[in-house]
Amino acid sequence: MNAEYEENDKNSVLNFYRERIRLRQDNPYSHILVMAYERVLDDLGILTFYNFQNQNAE
Question: Average pLDDT for residues 4-15, to the nearest whole number?
């Protein structure tokens, strides 16, 4: 991956994570400690969790 290429691609991994960070920083989301989302393609699903705490989440 090239950061310059990713910068210009709205669907890039870089911009995906930038959007997650923006959501975390913007109100009313600033109080969220853990965020989760699910991506599904055909019959395959991936559930992803983001921990914004300074400690492990259980």
Answer: 89
